[in-house]
Amino acid sequence: MAWKPSLPRCFWIVCAGLLLAGCQEQEQIRSYDVPKETIAVGPPPEKQRLLAVMVLHQKDVWFFKLVGPTKAVAEQVETFDRYVAGVHFFGEGSARFDYTPEGWQRLPEKLLPGNGQVVQHLRRDVKGSSVDLTVTRLPATEKAKDPRANIDRWRNQLGLAPISEDELTKLVGNVKVDGVESTRVDFTGGARKRGGSIFARGRPFQFTKPDDWEERPPDNRMGIFRPAVFLVRDREHLAEVSVVPAGGGAAANVNRWRSQLGLEALDDAQIKKELRTLDVAGAKAPYVDMTGRDPTGPQRILGAWIVHGGRTWFIKMKGSPELVGKQQAAFEAFVQSIRFADGQGAAHE
């Protein structure tokens, strides 16, 4: 007896059709050409080494700095120390340099905002790279003469974490320049490309970001490391939010923000009258709100700061008054969401 299929004929017709369709789809997949991603690979950037000496003399702070690739700087350490040893101060804001190294190109001097000056800038080309030796004089403001603020700025430029209290204590006053107790540092860290820096991207804190804030990569603006940066957009309006570890005290930073808006500086008593507070993990974070103008037009700044682990973290939103006003509640919630690695927010005062 011949075997007969027990299933309807139409079932087998459908199966044959599906099988044929599957074969055609498989054939299409085989013939689809997916372009391969090309990844450029080059030699890793060189590590950088920075030598710096900070000298507080009368009403000025002097900074002597040597920076460049580690191997190139290693060859110039003796030159740098001899250069600094040949410095002699006379009067206010003046110095004599008894030693000028040979084979270095002298670049133009440069005036800086706030009556500062790059007094000397020397550069030496070494096997395809360069080493820079600079002398900078700044008025002795609270921020300029703060060893921690300056040291942490240099360490941030090299991708290094902020300095510990024990390490800082060992460095302050570790050398004399023309009889003045000074601070000399020697750091090696992350690679630096010409015109910019590569720095640590890790953050010692966590936060809750508003959904409409666009997170940007950490950056190093004007020598100040910003581990968290956000853009906020609303049609033609734009605002920026940043978190910055900084020294110099609250009054100095508030007045720096005021100067950005064309507002006059306030003394400590006046600033206290302007302050509000935000609750951050059960502690109080001071908070200011100011409106003025900069070269782009009307601007508004919301600024708060958190003291934690012996450091001050400044959180600022700056942008058009209309957008900042709409985002004020989001900014306050962002500040209140900040928690450090130990689970704490602001220090209890």
Description:
- This protein has 349 residues and is α+β, with helices and mostly antiparallel strands.
- It has 2 domains: 48-189, no CATH class; 205-340, Jelly Rolls, CATH 2.60.120.1690.
- The protein has 8 helices and 21 strands.
- It has helices at 9-31, 70-74, 77-85, 147-157, 165-171, 249-260, 268-274, 321-337, and strands at residues 48-57, 60-69, 87-89, 95-97, 105-107, 110-112, 116-126, 129-139, 175-177, 180-189, 205-206, 213-216, 219-221, 224-226, 228-234, 237-246, 276-280, 283-294, 297-308, 311-319, 339-340.
- The strands form 5 sheets. Strands 1, 2, 5, 6, 7, 8, 9 and 10 form an 8-stranded antiparallel β-sheet that branches. Strands 12-15-16-20-19-18-17 form a 7-stranded antiparallel β-sheet, with helices on both faces.
- The longest helix has 23 residues, at 9-31.
- It is elongated.
